[in-house]
Amino acid sequence: MNGHTRPLLSRVADAAYWMARYIERAENVARFIDVNLHLQMDLPGERANQWQPLIDASGDTADFEQRYGEATQRSVIKFMALDPANLNSMGSCLRAARENARSIRETISSAMWEQINRIYLDVQRTDVALPVPQWLPELLHEIRLGCHLFQGIADSTMSHNEAWHFVQLGRRLERADKISRILDVKYFMLLPSVNFVGTPYDDLHWSAVLKSVSGFEMYRKKYGRISPGNIVEFLVLDRDFPRAIRHCIRGADESLHSITETPIGTYRCPSEQLLGMLRAELDFTAVESVLGSGLHEYLDGLQVKMNAIGETLSGEFFAWRRQTRATAAVGES
Amino acid sequence: MHFDAYQVEGFYDEMFDATGKPRPEARLLLESIESLDPAQLLRCQRAAERLLLQLGITFNVYGQSAGTERIFPFDLIPRIVTAQEWEWVERGLKQRIHALNEFIDDIYHEQNILKDKIIPEEIIRSAAFYRPQCRGISPPKRVWCHITGTDLVRDGDGQIYVLEDNLRVPSGVSYVLENRDLMKRTFPYVFEGLHVRPVNDYPSKLLEMLETIAPFSAAEKPVVVLLTPGMYNSAYFEHSFLAQQMGVQLVEGGDLAVEDGTVWMRTTKGLHKVDVIYRRIDDDFLDPLAFREDSLLGVPGLLEVYRSGRVSLANAPGNGVADDKVVYTYVPEMIRYYEGEDPILPNVPTFRCWQEQERQHVLENLEKLVVKSANESGGYGMLVGPHSTAEQRQEFAVKIEDNPRNYIAQPTLALSRVPTLVDDHFEGRHVDLRPYILYGKEITVLPGGLTRVALRKGSLVVNSSQGGGSKDTWVLARSAQGNGA
Question: Which of A177, A286, B293, B422 has its CA 20 to 30 A from that of B105?
Fold first, then answer.
């Protein structure tokens, strides 16, 4: 550490990481709802319920069923938009992001804080007593735009220092997690309907998956026609698309190495090892083997690995109530 | 918008004289306000309030659910202090702070002032914020009150008095800086032609002061941190603001640890040494081993490291002994004792209830006096006689008889007023003034300070928790005469 590098408090690193995760989570929830709304308009009314998968993708099925019962457009939107009891609703995520930002206001730039505060206050003003069409589209638009703006502000007003890399780490891991979930749920739901393969409905569904991660245009440029195999390759294994799992994991790995100052491709602590292994796996995996072993199983495995990375990071860098020795050497590769 | 209908109503007004004529120093400002379209003025006022919310310049209200945030209301019309008057206030504050610091150092060492019977020993021993744990400690440069926020008030006769010294953990300075910023952003027209002294170097001065009190063991560039109770504290905005402006770490108790006789902070790369702590936590909660055992906010073992001189604390623990309102009544004597001078700034005349004769007078005149508990602040624990009911006076009479040591009484002051925007016109509202004084190598006073205003009509209570707001305070760099007025 040179004389000008300011040490980063574990608590601050923790809050920066979670601030970014919650912002990213809010944005992803907004995307999921938005795309489903559009999909619904394109599909005949008697089609299978498109709202249940959204709940499944969020991982909050039990809580939802207990409090809302059946997944209808109304109930799912209510649950995912501003329900304060749902800790993963957009409203709750933004509140959590803001609380984290507030606790590290002196570390992030004022412009970042003002932006996060602005989104929060805008969302707070939403009158959910009005009919859904009167507030939802604008809310979704504002959250997506507001979150993008936040990322831009973070990139251009905050030094790319250790705290900033924790922001990147949180954002990338959260994004990878959400891509894997939406892909898993959609694939699971679409695959059994062999009858639809090649029908316009099939195309619609797959396009919706791409659109939910803003990947439709970039996919078209690269592959042209819609095909499930190519879509999986694009969203899991693409190196350049910013909402592909591989791209996210590579970015996370680079940020982690900037934090530890260990050269990329080597490791000194378990989180570097786990993240490096996952990166290598994604770098050298062919889509055929993903599909061959079953996409659901593969994505499940990915989620387990990403969770382990999150927990390891927390133990190594954020465990600020205990004494931390993050730099203790555990091996050299 | 015009001041034609504005009435001073027999109060001392900071902008108008008793006949309702603008004071020379206020004339230019009043003219530029009058030249504005009324709608524009109201727009500026609303823009300022919106900006406060957007910037998240809020305080948390105690006793309400966590996360309840309010803005501290801001009024666009500034308060003006002439260069000449400020020069006098500044001299008075420096004299007072110097004497108070001598007093605190004396109390925790030789106690000459008690031996010489200037102040009764009993008063000190029973002072709520006297800390016997601090006996014998010599902080660097023997400075105990590094940051002070003295409350000044002006009575109906135009005289400025010291109301309270606020030596422990005074807050509000961030509003001074933000108010000025807000004025420049929303109301830039009015600065024209006036030489208002800037306030924005306060964070640099504060940091410089904190670095000068670093222990000898510190490196050339000492590590300074600001210790906050956390984001649910009412002054959290200020803590993060000052840390950000100084570029120092904002830490909570849990971020710090004592090991090997040193204070460390827990970072992602292990433990990192800390030299100076600007603590915004009361003495009581600073160190559970030395003060309150049940404190979860503090750092166990901190006081021991401080005593050994391996970490510096600002403000110094124990300095609250002089915040006791009974001790306050002796400050003029302290100034004579330590400085050999007469006080420049007077105290508000105060009755000490522990002295029988004065107590009788207080009990007989409760409806005219303001009674205060010796160790409460924020406008709590007091009786404003003229606004009280017979029942409240009875309640206080009992309290005073039960514990005379704990009460003082002062005449009800007719606090001076400043024109304030009320709906679509101006009305006079009562104000006080809290300048901020730093004491490191030398004593420096931030020009101006926080002008708090009681926004409720007729109210004398300026505290933010009780309907108070604030105004920008303009200390002029030269006198109005020099400006050709």
Answer: B293
Token pair, residue A92, equals: 């709750």
Kindly report, residue by residue over A14-38, the tens digit of the pLDDT.
Answer: 999 999 999 999 999 998 888 888 7
Contacts by B42-50 with C-beta closer than 8 Å and gap 24+?
B42/B421, B42/B424, B44/B76, B44/B186, B44/B187, B45/B75, B45/B76, B45/B421, B47/B186, B48/B74, B48/B76, B48/B182, B48/B186, B48/B187, B49/B73, B49/B74
pLDDT in tens, B357-416: 999 999 999 999 999 999 876 667 789 899 899 999 999 999 999 999 999 999 999 999
Select from B38, B30, B37, B35 the least CA-distant residue to B6: B30
Which residue among B56, B252, B271 places its CB closest to the CB of A117?
A: B56
> What residue type is assigned to position A103 of the chain?
S
Architecture of domain B351-411: 2-Layer Sandwich (3.30)
Closest by CA to B345, choosing from B326, B328, B323, B358, is B328
Which three-class secondary structure state does DSSP give residue B459? coil
Q: How far apart are CA A9 and CA B3, in angstroms?
A: 54
- Cα-flanking dihedrals φ and ψ of residue A285, to 5°? -105, 140
Chain A residues within 8 A of B252 when measuring between CB atoms: 11
Pairing mode, if any, of strands B224-227 and B262-267?
unpaired
- The domain limits of chain A are 10-318
Cβ-in-10-Å burial (0-12, 13-18, 19+) of A332 comes to exposed
Asked if B244 and A13 come within 8 Å (Cβ–Cβ), the reply is no
Contact call for residues B480 and B186 (beta carbons, < 8 A)? no
Sequence-distant (6+) residues with CB within 8 A of B16 are: B3, B6, B8, B22, B23, B26, B419
| Residue among B258, B262, B263, B269 with most chain A CBs within 10 A, to mutate | B269
User: Domain map of chain B by residue range?
Assistant: 24-343+413-483, 351-411
Task: Look at B56 and A320 and tell me if their CB atoms are within 8 Å.
Answer: no
DSSP 3-state of B362: helix
What is the C-alpha to C-alpha distance for residues B40 and B421, in angstroms, rounded to an integer?
13
- Structural contact between residues A123 and A90, judged by C-beta atoms closer than 8 angstroms: yes
